Amino acid sequence: MISCIAIAPVYAEYYSKTVTPRSKVEKVTHLHFFLHDILGGENPGAVVVARANLTKKDDSVLPFGTLVAMDDPLRVGPEPTSKIIGNAQGLYLSSSQDASKFTIVLYADFAFTSGKFNGSSFSVFSRNPVTEADREVAIVGGRGKFRMARGFAKIKTSYFNATTGDAILDYNVTLYHY
């Protein structure tokens, strides 16, 4: 039996166009707000979605390997009644085996729902050493007015309840964007 194979040449092209941005001026935006991370009560903004099956006893609220889903309000002040300007949605993972050096890895989108940045957000993907008084996390992107953002957020703990894990965090953000 003889088989014939016909090979037809295939020519493929792709479309590419490089454009020069209209404005090469980088903007710097400074933001200040409070994230209310509440794990307890009737309407928590953060819930544990997974815990590690550890053999050693760990009495901390969020032991090593705990995964938390969050949809926390961003407010103008530390008071629970202050105006909501947005929300932070994402995940954080308790990543420190040493409870005295409690650290999380944070993956979250900080979206604004009012004001001049309504509809815009920035993304954080960073290690957050919670037990340090002053700490910094990396901003790795954004959308809307913060498209292609990069920068950092300085965080201070305004309030923390070691029994419930509830926290109010003071965020001072510096964004570089176009």
From TrEMBL:
Principal localisation: secreted
Keyword Magnesium tagged: no
Secreted recorded as keyword: yes
Domain of life: Eukaryota
Cell location: Secreted, Extracellular space, Apoplast
Pfam families for this protein: Dirigent
InterPro entries, per database record: Allene_oxi_cyc_Dirigent, Dirigent
Keywords linked to the UniProt accession: Apoplast, Secreted
Similarity comment: Belongs to the plant dirigent protein family.
Functional summary from the UniProt entry: Dirigent proteins impart stereoselectivity on the phenoxy radical-coupling reaction, yielding optically active lignans from two molecules of coniferyl alcohol in the biosynthesis of lignans, flavonolignans, and alkaloids and thus plays a central role in plant secondary metabolism.
Record's subunit section: Homodimer.
Record protein name field: Dirigent protein
Organism: Hibiscus sabdariffa
Lineage: Eukaryota, Viridiplantae, Streptophyta, Embryophyta, Tracheophyta
